[in-house]
Amino acid sequence: MKINLVLIVILAFFYISAVDVPQTCNSESFADECVPKLTTGFNFLKSYKIDGTAKDKVEYSYVFTKGTQYFINLCNSGAATDGIVVNIFDKERNKVASNKISGQYVSAISFPCNATGIYYIQYTFDEPSGHCGGSAMGFKR
Amino acid sequence: MRISIVTLIFILLFSCSAEKKTEDKEFLESLENNASASGVDEQLINSILNQIPSPLEISVILKHTGSVFNSAMLNSTDNASKYNTNFKKAINLGIYGTDLGYTNIFGQSQQGIKYITTIKSLANDLNIGQFFDVETIARLASNSKNLDSLLLITTQNFNSINHYLQSQGRDNLSVLLLTGGWLEAMQITCQTAAKKPTKELFDTIGEQKIILEQILLLFSFYENDANMASISEDLKLLKTAYEKVVINYTYKESTMEIVNGVAVIKDNSSTTIDITPDNVKEIQDLVNTIRNKIIN
């Protein structure tokens, strides 16, 4: 009886380990890592945590100013962007910028803004494994 | 019976001492408790707070327009001793933050050290002084070649404060910092435009209509706080002046290409700002009035 109980406890432990343990994402360290990687000449503005372990998109908003050039980069553990897509939408939700062009992913966007307004910076995930990263944004005039 | 009387006296004593809380202490408590107590959607507030541009962007625009540094436009650090309530300390911390960015952008780093010392002192009083490393900032300010690092570290300090306050549910303090910072940037821009009117400066002032709308949205969450309601009323007057300013937006699909591993965008959309010198004058006068109430 005692052996059966021990066996049940061990099996339950393995089951929980295999099924229920949530993925951890240290998005803050990726965001911090991205700050010094901003291209020279850009002043740091914001760093963004991209933790998509429990959701299919992460979104921030920011008021961009006409005549200012913004630079947004991506940092994650894998090669390239690991399927992390960053799209920028205007206030009417029209796509105005993306790091995925003709199926190719790049880890930075240079966006010279020509229309002042609220923009949405949205991170989505094309790969099931790459749901964690960080990003930083800088500006120059 | 004697025990009951003693108990009653104790209760009375405690209730009296509770009533004698200073206005300042009550405000600090309201700063710390109001957001969660009133059921404010903290996620929504944080999202709005994070979309407001850094006042540093305006300082860079001013430098770009060829305007010259003018310390007379800034809030004197001597005024800091007058700020004896936490409300005043919080909103003027934002004002001094913008003054620090402006002095740094214009290479007046030694003057910037005075601001960082004042900022540190106000931040200490608000229990957020741990985010300012005065020694490191002073060291960076001593050499003009360190400007990028100086701007980086001061921006990071203010970002850390805002993240900390938001994580602690003290969003209202963040709102005051941000409002002070924005008002000071407005005031500097308006004064610069008054001396040297250019289309770029007029447009910058006009574009602030978008930011003002977001700030007023933030204040709408704190209508029960008398101090914040008072600023909100002033900002609503400014909003009325801004109703005469029109921002026209035209969307046109962007073009994108990859250059050296970077997605380089050509933004084909555009905005135009309809703003007259009279509109600017009205906005400038209102901004001055509001700011004078805050700094004096």
Please supply descriptive tags for the structure shown above.
heterodimer, A: 141 residues, alpha+beta, Jelly Rolls, 4-stranded antiparallel beta sheet, 2 helices, 10 strands, globular, B: 296 residues, mainly alpha, two-stranded antiparallel sheet
Describe this structure in words.
Chain A has one domain (about 25-140): Jelly Rolls (Sandwich). Chain A is an alpha+beta fold and about 140 residues long. The longest helix of chain A is centred in the N-terminal third of the chain and has 18 residues, at about 1-20. Chain A has helices at about 1-20, 25-35; strands at about 45-50, 55-65, 70-75, 85-90, 95-100, 100, 105, 110, 115-125, 130-140. In chain A, β4 and β5 form a beta hairpin. Residues about 15-20 of chain A have low confidence and may be disordered. In chain A, about 45% of the residues are buried. A four-stranded antiparallel β-sheet of chain A has the order 1-10-3-8. In chain A, strands 2-9-4-5 form a four-stranded antiparallel β-sheet, with no helix packed on it. A two-stranded antiparallel ribbon of chain A has the order 6-7. Chain B has about 300 residues and is mostly helical. Chain B has one domain. Helix content of chain B is about 70%, strand content about 5%. Chain B contains twelve helices and four strands, in the order αααααααααααββββα. In chain B, the strands form two sheets. Chain B has a two-stranded antiparallel sheet with strand order 1-4. A two-stranded antiparallel sheet of chain B has the order 2-3. Chain B starts with a helix and ends with a helix. Residues about 10-20 and about 35 of chain B have low confidence and may be disordered. At the A-B interface, β1, β2, β5 and β8 of A face α3, α4, α8, α10 and β1 of B. β8 (about 110) of chain A pairs parallel with β3 (about 260-265) of chain B.
